[in-house]
Write a structure and sequence with these properties.
Shape: globular
Order of helices and strands: EHEEEHEEEHHE
CATH architecture: 2-Layer Sandwich
């Protein structure tokens, strides 16, 4: 059994519902959700002219290898109505693998740990709530320390 951390975000429609529905669908697919962060409303990153996001993070216990887990996340996104649009644009749901055990992986369709997570408060804040002591296997820093280093890179507000 492996431990993976998943970032969840939405800025289209009922954002809170979409995030919580994604957690439910993870559980229904056989993933054991062991920790769930609060929900955070955050400014958009990348493309600024769009609605704010609701973001959260979960810890799961999984028997899926990384590529199969990625496939599951894409399947959930599709089931929830995600469509290909502008990169970093509005989306009904976004699911990203942040960490998978202490694995480092870099191929065309999957990079673990997530390559930009250490620069994104909207990822680090909910992740720090559920895994502050988790050490980034490349940067060799705890998630809580990465968050402290990046508090000026975006505003967020806990909504639950």
């Amino acid at each position: 059994m492996s431990i993976a951390y998943i970032a969840i975000g939405s800025n289209v429609g009922n954002r809170r519902y979409h995030c919580l529905k994604a957690v439910e669908l993870l559980e229904q697919s056989g993933q054991a959700v062991s920790k769930i962060s609060s929900l955070y409303e955050t400014e958009p990153w990348g493309v600024k002219n769009q609605p704010p996001f609701i973001n959260m993070a979960v810890e799961i216990e999984t028997e899926f290898p990384p590529k199969k887990l990625l496939g599951l996340l894409k399947k959930i996104e599709k089931k929830m109505g995600r469509k290909k649009t502008v990169r970093w644009g509005p989306r009904v749901i976004d699911l990203d693998i942040l960490f998978y055990d202490d694995l480092t992986l870099n191929n065309d369709d999957l990079v673990i740990p997530h390559p930009l997570m250490h620069t994104r408060v909207f990822v680090l804040e909910p992740l720090s709530e559920i895994a502050p002591e988790k050490v980034h296997p490349v940067l060799r820093k705890k998630v809580a320390a990465l968050l402290r280093e990046n508090t000026s890179s975006g505003a967020s507000r806990k909504v639950r």
